[in-house]
């Protein structure tokens, strides 16, 4: 796969200033700006507070991967297309360090959010980032097409760990608990949820194979066609009867929104 060209300098500067301006105070903006240098200097994580949709919450920035997630969620608005009716229950599959869950909590303050992240180290960060928000519940499991256990692949060389091996340098295998989405909803006592967000690095089809789609009001998530065999037609057929909207984010990836008619 060809490495994408680097963004023009003007675009990178604009992204930098938009990220910095998420800071709730001047000190927080300085901390976000410092995070760019802290990574290069191995100075450790940066603790700051951001303001989103009129809400403030503390977060930890520990390297470029965190800033990428913050940019995708808060600057690019990857999940801003979540629409009415306002969801009462939200499940965030592949919650990573919790930025999407925090965004949903800010946008839908009356919602209860269930954030799922299988990677143990990432899960620890998820818990820390969301600790101040009682509406977010966290779960250290993976969502798949079967209940049980599965190999999970973690590598510092990749932005996202995955249930799919990539053969990246330093990639290591761990074992994680898996539940189908149907089983997870049964476990938390919900027959139906208003919104399902997912970002699970090529395992999207397995999520849908383990779910009765009528149990979800709206879907929004990333599809990683470079990491799976299924094509767009498979998802359109699986979500038939829904209004499907696609936003291309790269030659191999897109954000899909599926709404009830």
Structure overview:
The structure is a single chain. With 261 residues, the chain is an alpha/beta fold. It has 2 domains: 7-62, no CATH class; 77-259, Vaccinia Virus protein VP39 (Rossmann fold). The protein has helices at residues 9-20, 26-40, 64-75, 99-107, 120-130, 181-187, 204-209, 232-238, and strands at 46-52, 55-61, 89-93, 112-116, 136-139, 142-143, 148-154, 172-179, 193-198, 216-224, 243-250, 253-259. The protein is globular and about 45 Å long. The N and C termini lie far apart (37 Å). The relative contact order is 0.11. The mean pLDDT is 89.
Summarize the structure in short:
A hairpin with a 2-residue loop joins strand 1 (46-52) and strand 2. The chain is built from 8 helices and 12 strands. It is of the alpha/beta class and 261 residues long.
Mean pLDDT: 89
Distance between the termini: 37 Å
Shape by Cα distribution: globular
Name of the top-level CATH class of the largest domain: Alpha Beta
Q: Kindly state the percentage of residues in helix.
A: 25-40%
Number of domains: 2
- Looking across the biggest beta sheet, what order are the strands in? 5-4-3-9-10-12-11
What's the β-strand tally?
12
Approximate strand percentage: 25-35%
């Amino acid at each position: 796969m060809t490495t994408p060209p680097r963004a023009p300098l003007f675009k990178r500067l604009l992204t930098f200033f938009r990220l910095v301006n998420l800071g709730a105070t001047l000190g927080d903006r300085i901390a976000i700006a410092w995070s760019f240098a802290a990574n290069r200097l191995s100075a450790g994580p940066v603790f700051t507070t951001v303001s989103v949709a009129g809400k403030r919450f503390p977060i930890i920035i520990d390297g470029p991967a965190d800033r990428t997630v913050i940019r995708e969620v808060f600057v690019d608005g990857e999940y801003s297309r979540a629409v009415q009716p306002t969801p009462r229950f939200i499940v965030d599959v592949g919650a990573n360090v919790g930025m999407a869950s925090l965004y949903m909590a800010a946008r839908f303050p009356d919602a209860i959010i269930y954030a799922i992240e299988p990677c143990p180290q990432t899960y620890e960060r998820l818990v820390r980032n969301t600790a101040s928000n009682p509406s977010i519940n966290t779960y250290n499991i993976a969502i798949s097409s079967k209940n049980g256990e599965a190999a999970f692949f973690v590598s510092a060389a990749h932005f996202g760990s995955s249930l799919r091996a990539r053969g990246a340098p330093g990639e290591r295998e761990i074992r994680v608990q898996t539940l189908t989405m149907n089983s997870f909803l049964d476990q938390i006592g919900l027959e139906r949820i208003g919104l399902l967000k997912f970002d699970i690095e090529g395992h999207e089809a397995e999520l849908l194979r383990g779910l009765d789609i009528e149990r979800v009001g709206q879907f929004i998530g990333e599809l990683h066609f470079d990491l799976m065999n299924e094509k767009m037609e498979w998802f359109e057929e699986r979500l038939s009867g829904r209004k499907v909207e696609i936003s291309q984010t790269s030659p191999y990836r897109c954000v899909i929104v599926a709404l009830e008619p």
